[in-house]
Design goal:
The protein is of the alpha/beta class. Among the domains are: 93 residues, Periplasmic binding protein-like II (D-Maltodextrin-Binding Protein, domain 2, 3-Layer(aba) Sandwich), CATH 3.40.190.10; 105 residues, Periplasmic binding protein-like II (D-Maltodextrin-Binding Protein, domain 2, 3-Layer(aba) Sandwich); 74 residues, Periplasmic binding protein-like II (D-Maltodextrin-Binding Protein, domain 2, 3-Layer(aba) Sandwich), CATH 3.40.190.10. Helices cover 32% and strands 26% of the residues. It has 13 helices and 19 strands. It has a 6-stranded mixed sheet with strand order 3-8-4-7-5-6. Helix 2 links the parallel strand 1 and strand 2. The longest helix has 24 residues. It is elongated, with a radius of gyration of 29 Å. It starts with a helix and ends with a helix.
């Protein structure tokens, strides 16, 4: 009798083992690890929370995109965290979770110094990560066929662009924002398309799709997804509220010989006069000092400030998407013998950040005043553009380059009206590139 009971117990134990093992396996799903960055952290946070409601934990392994796609199709890994619907055209064994998980832009990136506005109709060479279906589709829709390189990861794409071996790099907007490229003021971007990302599972796990969809929808309706966006620093785009075309606009700027002259001539004024009249009847141009120009914009007495570098860090302003010109190199001018007196600046305040010095700074409203003080020995040096050197000097100044030429932008107030004006300006610039 005892032996019969023991046999029954063993049979029951062995009979339960496959079920128990399967239950344990169902507590974990493995996916290809996404690129690092706030946006992908947000997407994985959403999915991890939704799967947790099903008692499932997510794990990630580093894989090239194409290899991950193959393993997902084979069922070696569970699926793809986020892909567009184009995936279904080539991977029939992957099932879409029918909830739009995120949207993103496909963008083209190039160096302003090489191609100015970098028109998409003149692309000669480009690089993008192999296996990105939305980009492959965008490339086939270009006006002419360029030379294309498709490395296995984003790092190699970045190196190709930085070294000048390709003219353009195509990538997602969240890849760009998470990369070192986003801090490079010389790079210009163009949006190619807006795409929707979905979560995909191998058909082996298709039974999870209804419940997963239910929980994702619930997280959206409860505001939980928005909370996660805020937590990971994903800011929504400011909606553009339509306004009536302004009857007149006032654009202010500081004198910069050749770029912005007191008589209303110069490269920058030419840009303003060719763009703003497309959406206003009257354009008023005002020339003032740097500090006065900034004050007029911040007080709402000017609608735009022309000729701003991205590193000027002015409060409560936004910059145009497209550059309007390049400034000149900035130098530190001094006389022999050098002394430890103040450094004089008449230009924007960012200039004083270009020198690592404990010396005090002395400000004037005019470049010539700074150089007069230098000649009298009242200051030890002047930070300025070479074009602002005086004609009267009898002895040459020593000069040290502090900054190479940088792109200049149009600045607008950071308010609803300013956002609309920037939108109008950028859209017009697209039609009348430099």
């Amino acid at each position: 009798m005892k032996s019969s009971l023991r046999l029954c117990a063993l049979l029951l134990l062995f009979g339960l083992m496959p079920i128990t093992s399967q239950a344990v396996l169902q507590q974990k799903l493995v996916f290809r690890a996404p690129d690092e960055g706030p946006f992908t952290q947000y997407v994985t946070a959403v999915l991890e929370e939704a799967y947790a409601k099903l008692g499932i934990k997510l794990e990630y392994i580093e894989l090239p995109r194409v290899r991950g796609e193959q393993l997902a199709t084979e069922g070696t890994i569970a699926g793809e965290l986020g892909r567009t619907a184009l995936l279904e055209e080539k991977r029939r064994d992957l099932r879409r979770v029918p909830f739009p998980l995120f949207t993103f832009d496909i963008i083209a990136i190039a160096d302003r110094r090489d191609c100015g506005f970098c028109n998409l109709s003149k692309i000669e060479s480009l690089a993008y990560v192999d296996g990105m279906d939305s980009i492959t589709k965008a490339v086939t829709e270009l006006p002419q066929e360029p030379s294309v390189v498709t490395p296995i990861d984003l790092e190699q794409v970045l190196k190709l662009l930085a070294s000048g071996r390709v003219q353009f790099a195509f990538m997602t907007d969240f890849q760009f924002k998470s990369s070192e490229l986003s801090d490079n003021p010389h790079l210009i971007t163009h949006k190619l398309s807006t795409e929707v990302g979905f979560h995909y599972l191998n058909e082996e796990h298709a039974r999870l799709i209804p419940q997963l969809t239910y929980h994702l929808q619930g997280m959206h309706e409860s505001g939980r997804m928005q909370q996660l966006r805020v937590h990971h620093g994903i800011k929504p785009e400011t909606p553009i509220e339509p306004i009536a075309p302004p009857e007149q606009l006032t654009v202010v700027g500081a004198i910069h010989p050749g770029l912005l002259n007191a008589d209303g001539t110069g490269t920058l004024w030419n840009v303003a006069k060719s763009v703003f009249p497309a959406f206003t009847e009257q354009l008023n141009t005002v020339v003032s000092s740097w500090q006065r120009s900034i004050q007029l914009l911040q007080e709402g007495r000017a609608d735009a400030l022309i000729g701003i570098r991205s590193d000027q860090k002015i409060e409560n302003i936004i910059l145009s998407k497209y550059h309007i010109a390049y400034d000149d190199s900035i130098f530190l001018f001094s006389l022999e013998p050098d002394h430890e007196g103040p450094i004089c600046i008449s230009g924007p305040r960012f200039m004083q950040t270009l020198v690592n010095s404990e010396r005090p700074f002395y400000r004037t409203s005019d470049s010539l005043d700074c150089f007069a003080l230098l000649d009298m020995g009242r200051v030890s040096a002047v930070i300025d553009y070479k074009a602002n050197l005086p004609d009267w000097t009898e002895q040459p100044y020593k000069k040290k380059k502090l900054s190479d030429p940088q792109p200049l932008f149009m600045a607008f107030p950071d308010n609803s009206r300013g956002h609309v004006l920037r939108h109008l300006f950028d859209n017009t610039m697209v039609k009348t590139p430099l």
